[in-house]
Amino acid sequence: MPESHRASPEALLQEVWGYPSFRGMQQPIIEHVVGGGDALVLMPTGGGKSLCFQIPALLRPGLGVVVSPLIALMQDQVAALHELGLRAAFLNSSLDAAAARQVQAQARAGELDLLYMAPERLLSESGQRLLDNCRLALFAIDEAHCVSQWGHDFRPEYGQLEILRERWPDVPRVALTATADIPTRREIAQRLLREDARAFVSSFDRPNIRYRVVEKRDGRAQLLQFIREEHEGDCGVVYALSRSSVEQVAEYLAGHGMRALPYHAGLGSETRARHLRRFLDEDGVVMVATIAFGMGIDKPDVRFVAHLDMPRSIEGYFQETGRAGRDGLAAQAWMAYGLADVVQQRRLIELGEADEAHKRLSSAKLDAMLALAEAADCRRVRLLAYFGESSQPCGNCDNCLHPPELVDATEAAQKLLSTIYRCRQASGISFAATHVIDVLRGKSGDKVQRFGHDRLSTFGIGADWSEQDWRVLLRQLVAQHLVEVDSMHYNVLRLTEASREVLRGARQVMLRRQAPGVARRRRATSASGTRAAVALDAADTQLFEALRAWRSEVARDHGVPAYVVFPDATLQAIAMARPADLEQLRSISGVGDKKRDTYGPALVRLIAEHA
Ligand code: ADP
Ligand code: ZN
Q: Whose CA is nearest to atom 23 of ligand 1?
């Protein structure tokens, strides 16, 4: 790093990264750390955490050591820094002895600005000795929530990082995470930071993500339609609960011509690594995965995250959907949700081995998630409220864009509840949804006749509603604990204490109905927002596609993921501004000095060809 770069954070941001201004809290964080302070940085995924330690590492004399749990991704992070012309390297188990020795020598000689280390490497005797022999600018601990015993990603090696404080008390430390809750924050600070550390907590809003929940009918087919209509050729992640459904869905999408790959813990590590590589390196791969996939995936151009099964908590939902749109361009979080999700998640808690207190906590978390899925008002307001932030309706979620109708369904609910009650009263056993709905709708099949339920007073009182209508109502009742599904016993339906209030007329039931015609209108609105290329007119789109093709080639030649060369946002800006020379190229956000020198001439030529 030439001395001239050591001027100021702003100058570095412009010259190295090519960004005109800092985002959110980046600037105060950087100033604090450059001044030698410890910091806890809470920022949502895509908020720009990396700069908060990379710039201070450049500005402070010595080596910045970055602790990261994800070996598979260190290589990309370092490659991205090389593309920017920075002196960076990593040390983890993927290096052979000779390569590791070389990195160590560079570090000792002061030839590196940033060194990424796996925690076990840092904790080893040789790792500690190495750092003793280097001048240290700072420690950055990425995914810092992994030190928390109470968090959901606890890693034992992280637990031992307290050693940083004891062995190098004078080196500033920055702990970074996108996980929000208060106990975890406290534990991170306690274990890793000095007492006078400052916490920088950003808003968790991700305004570019559009949240959507659709009623699940045939989840796979709905997913296919969603991708086809709104995300053809885009990179995305699809989450499913089980390994088998991951494989089936990946196969199904692939069978329909998509570049879909499965990812779950049951696949061999080699297959997993290969699929991850393709997801990172190629354009437009859809990864179908269990939640085993995701932490630390900082691919910026994931345009959608789809859930085929509902996550079990809002934290999980927020973390998973947060992997969309890190580049700040429009992205979607789409979830198909149905009765089976409610039943399945409740069963998982029920069957789990946790103690009663833990089960109660899990149930409360699930109920909050259900309330979000069933909400008729702004989903973002609810999401943020869950993390303690208040906000106004966002205008960029399904409920804001197409407010659902809320109808008084108390009478219908009473019909449904009394049918459940009558069936049980007549036969002494409880029945599942299909049977109860048949009775309601007056369908007298074999089973209904066998039990004589066609003679019940409620037989046929719900003939004016379709089976699907009844299922939607039933789902909402189950979500609100007004009906219980006994998943240990053929999914039979049972009344609860609260159902009696409804039957007595002491409690109103409001039913959320998706406005008719929503599907078509949705397509129209999404067309203006979701695709990276949509803001462009036809000619610009053509250039954008040409730039993407050029980028793929360069990425292959350099052996780096495409987004490391340039993110979509930058290519899009180039396609619109059509810079005619290197000087004009400099004004594009995301083109720093090194990239301008390396790629500028080729870009200018390509743009001229498309004039
Ligand atoms: P996080 O680690 O918080 O998820 P990253 O550090 O990976 O986020 O940043 C997300 C994306 O935003 C990256 O592509 C990064 O280059 C970009 N970015 C970060 N800071 C800025 C900024 N000030 N201006 C423009 N883009 C930025
Ligand atoms: Zn909204």
A: 22
